[in-house]
Structures are given as structure tokens and as C-alpha cells.
Amino acid sequence: MDRRCLVRDLCGHARDSESRSAADRLHAFHKIEQGFSVQAKVWVLLAGASGFWMTWRGDMWWRFAEPAYWWMSAMLALWLVFFLMLFVAEPLFLHRRMANSTTPERDFRTMVIVHRILSVFALATTLGAMAGAHGLI
């Protein structure tokens, strides 16, 4: 199965996606995820290091205590979620749990919902950070 078929099946756009089992969709997700796992880990580490360096270099620690700079705390919280997922939850138990899942349909649905929530949170954080950095809020 090539990558296009995996993406199509994962997204549910295939004509026969209804005939695919939940276990197959979960397997497709993990197959796609493996393709950029290392890249995601590198970028999360670089984002954390650069954020820490900018905060330290600009002596901006006080911003975390100011409600007007909510986006600073939101960026840190979002980074922590991704860091914990990539470096703690996935290697310690999440991959094993998904591989041995007794409820793949529910697990896949939960995974999609979590990804969507994180995407909305990331978009709101990015918009807030851009607006805050330009003095709009």
C-alpha cells in the first residue's frame, strides 16, 4: 500500500473507506506517523530551545506572570503537550497501548479528536502570539 492510499484511507476519503476496519485505519496512521517522527522530535526540541533562548536573552520571564501576555503561557503549554506526547507518552506506553488495542475504533476516534483540539489550540496560540508581538492585543 503506497503513502497516498494510506493518507486517503486515514482521512476517510476513499470510496471504500467504510469497508476498512478501524484497526487498518489505526495501522495507516502509525505508518504515516513513522515517516516524520524523527523530524517532529527535532523541531519540537528546536522550538523549545529557541523559545527558551529568546525568553532568557530578552529577560522576558516576567511576561509569564502578566495576563496581558497570555500567549506566552499558551506557547509554553502547547510546547509542553507536544514534548510530553513525543518524548514521554508515546515511547513509554502509548505505542504499546495502541498496538494492543481492544477498541481500535474508539482509539482512532479519540486520536482524531485530540489532534483536532490541539490544532485549534495551536492556531489560537499562533494568532495570539502574532497579535501580541505586534502590539495588537
Topology readout:
Elements: H1 3-11, H2 22-57, H3 70-99, H4 104-133
What does this structure look like?
This protein has 137 residues and is mainly α. It is 77% helix and 0% strand. The protein contains four helices and no strands. It is elongated and about 50 Å long.
The rounded Rg comes to 18 Å
SS summary, helix count: 4
Shape: elongated
End-to-end C-alpha gap: 48 Å
Unreliably modeled segments: none
Strand content: under 5%
Kindly report the oligomeric state of this protein.
single chain
Mean pLDDT: 84
Helix content: over 70%
Class inferred from helices and paired strands: mainly alpha
The major β-sheet equals: none
Question: What's the β-strand tally?
Answer: 0
Q: What are the secondary-structure elements, in order, as H or E? A: HHHH
Summarize the structure.
This protein has 137 residues and is mostly helical. It is 77% helix and 0% strand. The chain is elongated.
